[in-house]
Amino acid sequence: MRYADWLLTANERGNAATRLDRRHPDGSAWSEGNRVRALVHGATYFAELLAGIRAMRAGDLLLFTDWRGDPDERLDGPGTEIGAVLRAAAQRGVVVKGLLWRSHLDGLHFSEAENRHLGEEIEEGGGECLLDLRVRPGGSHHQKLVVLRHPGRPERDVAYVGGIDLCHNRNDDATHRGDRQSLPMARAYGPHPPWHDVQLALRGPAVGDLEAVFRERWQDPAPLSRSPLIRLRERMHAEDTRADALPPQTADPAPCGTHTVQVLRTYPNRLLYGYPFAPDGEFSIARGYTKALRRARTLIYLEDQYLWSPRVVDSFARALSAHRRLRLISVIPTVPEQDGWLTRPMNLIGRITALRELRRAGGDRVAVYGLENPAGTPVYVHAKVCVIDDVWASVGSDNINLRSWTHDSELGCVVLDRTRDTRAPSDPAGLGDGVRDFARELRLELMREHLDAEVDPEAEAEAGPGERARDALCDPEDAFDAFREAAAALDAWYEGGCRGPRPPGRLRRYAPPELPAVQRALATPLHHVLVDPDGRPWGLRRRKAF
Fold first, then answer.
1. 386, 289 contact by CB (below 8 A)
2. Would the pTM count as exceeding 0.90?
3. Cis omega before residue 425 (within 30°)?
4. What is the rounded distance in angstroms from the CA atom of residue 217 to the CA atom of residue 117?
């Protein structure tokens, strides 16, 4: 497999100002020899993160960026509140540095107060946490990154990237009973909204790339905000607004695995005080997807919070039109996050128009599902996962919508595995790339959970040393049919009055509610001009970047 067939080259990244690729001795736009694991569910990620932070000692380096941070969110039971854990690390002499988004107005139910409180708790221990509003108008810093470096102990170095914020609602597990520390959402999700999410744990040279991502933002000399009101508030509260110097970056961890990792990002072209590391923006997430989708032949498996915007799904639609054996499975939230009179219709308009484009291109080869827990409560899908042909796997903070591809800061990682998965079919796409162990196993793990399926014990017994057990879900067509049949069985059970045992699986066929306001908007010839489902003024849309 040629990595350049699937991954962006440095030129294709389209951002000559970043040192992300220049820092590699050969100038390549990716790193080899990594070991990557997918941490499915916030509870899995939080427990591992807690253990990693508690093992850090004086002189170690902890860096993080986030969209929202709630200082009282417990990582693993009482006494593990994230604010207290980070404060204690700083008190032990760990160098703790954080960047949290300063949201525009707390009246919009974002995160400014919570992020400020988390920063204050970290700074009480001697760490430093800045509230960062260096974004385009209406935009946010959406990256979710934690880097743990250990000078003199590089074998312990690890970075975490994905969709999981250090905040309420995220600490759920496979039972999907929800985080006990919950924020209010749409009524359908109940008092403790079930939450599905994924984070990557990366070891090896990619840790150095992800540290470089943090350093570029930390060393941005622009003021944290251009707003006169916010700058006045900073002075009144004596907020820390100047980033202290970081210790020099140590050498990258040694290769330790078979995974090649490419770091992809979105940065908008900021109107004033442009990012010095991306003066005209960076849109490598959009470009990375667009390139990989051109090679899609058998199955695109998506888990996404939004799946909005016809312009963004155009790349998926083109792939479906070009290859008649290609199928697409998408797992999304059944119900929008909020019940607002404006936000809910806009949510649905964006999704309905995107699904129309996909189904126009792929017909019944496009299948979209929601999730529910065993009690029948919808599960809010916050994961941002894409697996193409069991070769290319992406996990990050970025959603399939225009905000993530052009307007907000985002961060994701693409993983290609040097190891072939030997289970049949060995090369369903017919491009000579085979299928790759990491991508296939990520897809299978997620699909098994949604189907309430387990690996066949007989197949496990038959597998040789170091081999994975055979699984019917390996075949893209069989996997597609398994989802369709499971959702149809559960839908039929509900339609029949829930008589008899509940069928296995958590999948429901997605059908958007027919709200009158949505139908009226969709009937308007210029609805795509009047309503921006990505939630920004139309005058702020970025020129074509992908």
1. yes
2. yes
3. yes
4. 21
CB-based contact 455:471 (threshold 8 Å) = yes
Cα–Cα distance between 192 and 172 in angstroms, integer? 10
Residue 198 and residue 385 in contact, taking contact as beta carbons nearer than 8 Å: yes
Supply φ then ψ for residue 128, to 5 degrees.
-145, 130
What is the rounded distance in angstroms from the CA atom of residue 380 to the CA atom of residue 336?
8
Distance CA 486, CA 366 (A): 16
Secondary structure of 318-373 as H, E, C letters: HHHHHCCCCEEEEECCCCCCCCCCCHHHHHHHHHHHHHHHHHHHHHHHEEEEEEEC
What is the rounded distance in angstroms from the CA atom of residue 509 to the CA atom of residue 466?
37
Cβ atoms 34, 204 nearer than 8 A: yes
**Backbone Cα Rg of the chain:** 23
Q: What is the largest CA-CA distance in the chain?
A: 68
Q: Pairing state of beta strands 95-101 and 128-132?
A: parallel
Checking DSSP bridges between strand 31-40 and strand 61-66, what pairing results, if any? unpaired
Degrees, nearest 5: CA angle 369-43-412:
65
Residues β-bridged to residue 392: 388
The tens place of each residue's pLDDT in the chain, 546 residues long, gives: 899 999 999 999 999 999 999 999 999 999 999 999 999 999 999 999 999 999 999 999 999 999 999 999 999 999 999 999 999 999 999 999 999 998 744 434 455 666 678 989 999 999 999 999 899 888 899 999 999 999 999 999 999 999 999 999 999 999 999 999 999 999 999 999 999 999 999 999 999 999 999 999 999 999 877 665 555 555 555 565 688 999 999 999 999 999 999 999 999 998 777 899 999 999 999 999 999 999 999 999 999 999 988 889 999 999 999 999 999 999 999 998 888 766 676 777 878 889 999 999 999 999 999 999 999 999 999 999 999 999 999 999 999 998 999 999 999 999 999 998 876 566 777 677 888 999 999 999 999 999 999 877 666 666 666 667 678 899 999 999 999 999 999 999 999 999 999 999 999 999 887 656 566 655 555 445 444 555 443 444 444 566
- Residue 148, Cβ density class (10 Å: 0-12 exposed, 13-18 middle, ≥19 buried): buried
